[in-house]
Amino acid sequence: MTISVLIPAYEPDERLLNLISQLRALLNVSIIVVDDGSGDRYHDIFQEVEACGCKVLRHDTNLGKGRALKTGFHYIREAGLEGHVICADSDGQHLPEDIIKIAHSLDHMGHRFVLGSRRFSGKVPLRSRFGNVVTRGIFTLSTGTKIHDTQTGLRGYSVSMLDWLCEIPGERFEYEMNMLLRAHKDGFLITEEYIDTIYLDKNKSSHFHPLVDSFRVYLPILMFSASSILSAILDFALLFLIQSLTNHLFLSVVVARMCSSICNYTMNRKYVFGMSKTSNIHHSLPRYFGLVIVVLLLNYGLLYLYHEGLAIPLFIAKLLTEASVFLFSYWVQRKYVY
User: Fold this and answer.
1) Helices (DSSP H) in the chain: which residue ranges?
2) pLDDT band at 252 (very low <50, low <70, confident <90, very high)
3) Are 89 and 11 in contact (CB under 8 A)?
4) CATH among 3.90.550.10, 3.40.50.300, 3.65.10.10, 3.40.640.10 for 3-207
5) Record's PANTHER family (predicted)?
6) What is the pLDDT of residues 88-138, one digit of tens each?
7) Backbone phi and psi for residue 197, each to the nearest 5 degrees, phi listed first
8) C-alpha 150: how far from its chain's center?
9) Domain ranges of the chain
């Protein structure tokens, strides 16, 4: 089992050295530490890290956790290191035993990555417990995927995922949320391994700023939800506009659905998930618009039944139709499209 442990570090203390020492005692691992612009005051700590046989990569200024992780991923890829890559925090929250647990889990996994999910039992700082509950709830509502700990910094990947990891947008704490949002769309399955929850000194060493960084974390989820809402509004508006101009229900449904679908796909691809590669288009576009055609036919059939057959007003008929096809569309997108 070949393992590279990647540790982003900003203004670390002796807990980083303790983690490295414990890892060295338990495993034969390559340890890469990224100094994310900690400054001259922390020069001695990073010298000790290098003296322990670790590779230290440096940022001249603080660029954020996402950028630090990508710097490490780039190095591992260029160095040709093999096996598994496990990311851990430098503040003592992750036990060496849990890092080993993630590595063993990766041995049995294929095209997926593993999260070290905290149980949040015992004495957990209120901001940490509350933040995870809120993020977990919003993530589940937005994606339909239930993850126990969306904010964990203990994550494991195979080296085959390095190209993908380097392409994920985000420079700071939002990077890890973007990763989760992109995972299912790009065919990566997420597995969770439960780990111990450790907060030293009420987690005062955390560099997570509740207001600014929470906004960055939630922004991808909010954009994901906003994309669906804006597309639905466009679909409603075009349906009523074209219907009023042509009095042709099928034409109205087709044009409205196609325009809103193109809008939704484009917004998700460009702004929500930051996808740009042609291969990603070839992977998702045919399946997405195949579903659009099926949903369009269902949409028209139900709308015709409600509006023409049962003489329900068009607005109410449209609401009933969308509610009727929502679960089907949602299930297909989760299982086959993304």
Assistant:
1) 14-26, 43-51, 65-79, 96-107, 126-143, 162-167, 174-185, 210-246, 249-267, 278-303, 314-332
2) confident
3) no
4) 3.90.550.10
5) UNDECAPRENYL-PHOSPHATE 4-DEOXY-4-FORMAMIDO-L-ARABINOSE TRANSFERASE-RELATED
6) 998 888 888 899 889 888 887 655 789 998 775 555 555 555 556 666 766
7) -95, 115
8) 8
9) 3-207, 220-337
CB 35 within 8 A of CB 57: yes
Question: Which two three-digit tokens encode residue 170?
Answer: 């985000």
Provide the residue type at 268 as one letter: N
pLDDT tens, residue by residue, 275-316: 444 445 555 567 666 767 777 788 788 888 888 888 888 888
Residue 70 is which amino acid?
K
Whose CA is closest to 231, among 273, 269, 276, 262?
A: 262
For 9, phi then psi, to 5°, come to -135, 130
| Residue 72 tokens, joined | 């490490």
CA nearest neighbour of 280 among 288, 24, 251, 255: 288
The 8-class DSSP code of residue 61 comes to S
